[in-house]
Specification:
Elements (H helix, E strand, L loop, with lengths): L3 H4 L3 H4 L1 H11 L4 E2 H8 L3 H13 L3 E8 L2 E8 L1 H24 L1
Antiparallel strand pairs: 1-3, 2-3
Length: 103
């Protein structure tokens, strides 16, 4: 097992809540804040904090609009986010394959 592989994991994505957000957004063109919050069973504040971290890294875009006179916040992966998540998943797959080969 190559321990350097673990050092290459993107620490922004690797945190379990952010990995969950990225996974959900990877499966959908965009999701509302409410959809993410409810699916992941997170508080508003916790979800906001993780989305801000992903946004600062350039992985997630946030759009604010109105639907039926109510505010609507939606999130989507950016091109950088799609690429970073794909690289992250590929690296994890490689780590799992290494572990399986050593057993």
């Amino acid at each position: 097992m190559n321990p350097d592989s673990f050092q290459q994991l993107d620490k922004v994505i690797h945190e379990k809540s952010r990995m969950a957000i990225m996974s959900m957004l990877a499966g959908s063109p965009e999701l509302s804040f409410t959809e993410l919050r409810n699916a992941l069973k997170m508080t508003d504040g916790n979800l906001t904090t993780h989305i801000r971290t992903l946004q600062k890294s350039g992985y997630v875009s946030v759009s604010k609009s109105f639907r039926k006179n109510r505010p609507l916040t939606t999130c989507a992966l950016t091109a950088n986010g799609i690429r970073a998540f794909s690289d992250y998943v590929s690296l994890l797959e490689g780590i799992v394959k290494q572990a399986q080969q050593s057993n």
